[in-house]
Amino acid sequence: MNTTHIILQGLEPIHQRYQQLLQEIADIASAGNVVKLNDSAARFEQVSLDTDAWVSIQELCFKAELDVTALDKKLSLSDFKLLAMDMDSTLITIECIDEIADMQGLKPQVAEITEAAMRGELEFQESLTRRVALLKGLDALALQRVYDERLQLSLGADKMLKALQQAGLKTLLVSGGFTFFTDRMKSRLQLDYTHSNLLEIDHGKLTGKVSGIIVDADEKQRTVERICAELGVTGKQAIVMGDGANDLKMMSVSGLSVAFRAKPVVRAKADVAFNFVGLDGILNLF
């Protein structure tokens, strides 16, 4: 492994509670220096890691419910110009379509399809078409109820967005979810760009169909590339966050990919995986 430092962070103060673990990690990594970033984060510098040592550290941290990231260089926010995010279960805590389905009494059936798609076991377009079809006849007012009653930002989302926006990054919300929600997120969080699926509504009822291009994995990647081109930057100047298999293609063109509360297939391929800390954990990497 070509690693210069690792960053450890948790939801609670780590420097007192995990003192023994911190020392154990420093020994395994042959760390030349340990820097306290804040009460909940530390950076181990000048580390020497082989694959076995890195696996051991990951296992120790996961057991302690701490997130650990290995980086081959120190990152600067000035290296990045765009933050691209998935919405459902990434920027927000829910899968909107599952909660809409709950209004129909169909949440278990829809959630099962959602999970299969997120794990990569089912092609996204097929999964979306099947799930939306189950919503046929539902009063469109259910969308507002989901937004008002169930939609919450993920832990640390607000802090992360404010910091990255203040640093000058443009923001893109690209989602296999629906414009009803991404439009409201754009206004609420002052995002620069959004792209998602349009639910077809007729006489106040959902028709069970989506209008236009389905935002699947390929469309997500194309969107990130298109926005980068508009900004005159490369994909390597983008940070991309997601949690499901349909996020992998857009994550693959980024300079920094972040898996948040993600499926194993996504965690394995991302540069950074946050299983415990909030989205603002990314700030400790810079």
Count of alpha/pi helices? 11
CATH superfamily of the largest domain: HAD superfamily/HAD-like
Give the overall form.
elongated
Indicate the CATH topology of the largest domain. Answer: Rossmann fold
Class by SSE composition: alpha/beta
Assembly type: single chain
The top level CATH class name of the largest domain = Alpha Beta
Task: State the helicity in percent bands.
Answer: 25-40%
- Low-confidence segments: none
End-to-end CA span: 20 Å
Rg over C-alpha atoms, rounded to the nearest angstrom: 20 Å
The largest sheet is: 7 strands, mixed
* Level-2 CATH architecture of the largest domain: 3-Layer(aba) Sandwich
Number of E-state strands: 11
Strand content: 15-25%
Number of domains: 2
Description of the molecule:
The chain folds into 2 domains: 5-74, Alpha-Beta Plaits; 78-285, HAD superfamily/HAD-like (Rossmann fold, 3-Layer(aba) Sandwich), CATH 3.40.50. Helix 4 (107-118) runs antiparallel to helix 5. The chain has 286 residues and is α/β, with parallel strands linked by helices. It is elongated. The protein has 11 helices and 11 strands.
